[in-house]
Amino acid sequence: MRGIHHLGVAVADLDEAIATYERLFHARLEHREPLRDQGVEAASVLLGEGRVELVTPTGEDTPVARFLARRGPGMHHVALATDDLMATLDELETAGAQLIDREPRQGLFGLEVAFVHPDSVHGVLTEVVASG
How many CB atoms lie within 10 A of CB 5? Predict the structure, then answer.
């Protein structure tokens, strides 16, 4: 792993969340796009050298919508950067991690991503992101 790629935060209103991060933390909107296969619209905001990904559901029957219904807005996932996503997934699986995604899916910026089940990482949904 190369380090933390971003922290993911589930929000009910993406426009409001972006405005809040801009107002409170002087964040700068880096990128925004719908991720249809994940059922979210996501926005990346930069805070210095760090990045926060704000995600809001695009439908009521999506993982993020269920997350918001159960827990409300807040920390959703941690994303770790890797140079070789497939090799990392193989290593994680060999080490006993329960993978949600055995095959990568498209994430923000068109990067390939895959998720590791929270039960494998002490309750934290973990996303592995191909550096790009």
Answer: 26
Separation between Cα atoms, residue 128 and residue 3, nearest integer Å: 10
pLDDT tens by residue, 51-84: 999 999 999 999 999 999 999 999 999 999 999 9
End-to-end Cα, the chain, rounded Å = 13
Q: Where are the beta strands (DSSP E) in 48-88?
A: 50-57, 74-82
Q: Are strands 112-116 and 105-106 parallel, antiparallel or unpaired?
A: antiparallel
* Rounded-to-integer distance, Cα 118 and Cα 122, Å: 6
Put simply, whether the predicted model's pTM sits higher than 0.85 gets the answer: yes
Tokens linked to 95: 């080490």
